[in-house]
Amino acid sequence: MSAQNYTVQAGDTLSKIAEKLYGDSNQWRQIYEANRNLIGSNPEQIQVGMVLTIPGQGQNDSGSAVQGNFQSMLEALGAFESGFPSGDPRQYTSENTLGFMGKYQFGEPLLIDLGYYKADVYYGNGADKNYWRGTWTGKRGINSKEQFINSRDVQEAAIREAFNLNLQRVNSALAAGGQSINNYLGQQKTFNDGGASKTITISLSGIMAGAHLRGPYGVADLLLKNQPSHDEYGTSILKYIEEYGGYNVSPADFS
């Protein structure tokens, strides 16, 4: 099925429209994401006469090919972050030269924000790397670095918590600039990164990946001020925004 328009009729819901057009009511979110700016924050508030854009099956809200679902995105991100292929148990115990660890290369500041860890001196605040000399809070039964790197379930829960926190912070930072994520989703933006021009279609999965690399305020600076940033190893936020963009992701996946 290719992309088309659909006029909302009496008695319609997004689930009913998805069932009618896709044969699968569970695909209502794909329609909502493509029309979020029109519908607003409540997907139940569609009105008779609205003309909705219905993405083709296998397309995201910008009309480009969907790379996969949220789990597919995490597998791709985890493989790059850890340096080990998807399914390799060494992903969870991976640690880089700056002490970032696990499948998603968690650092001290993030785990402090998520409530797993406490420290007065940590990476970015008096320390030149993640030394993990603080204390663990016992959240989800984790009382040591060793327990954290040996718990797949906790790492998978923590990355979802991180995405949820970053989404809130990105929204807050954009709101301070008079914008919201919805103003950017599906839009093509051209950025200047060290003299090189790069045009990227903005998606929620790309925004979340970029926030994981450079923090929510790095994403806000990119979108509001066209200011790309790089991590300690020279990886550009634009790489994450682009390479992990286009996945079929919604806040419900990690909220």
TrEMBL record:
Domain annotation LysM: ranges: 4-54
InterPro entries per the record? Bact_Kbp, LysM, LysM_dom_sf
Recorded hits in Pfam families, A to Z, give: LysM (PF01476)
Identify the domain of life. Answer: Bacteria
**SUPFAM superfamilies per record:** LysM domain
The record's Gene3D superfamilies line, in alphabetical order, gives: LysM domain
Protein name stated in the entry: LysM domain-containing protein
The scientific name of the source species is Dulcicalothrix desertica PCC 7102
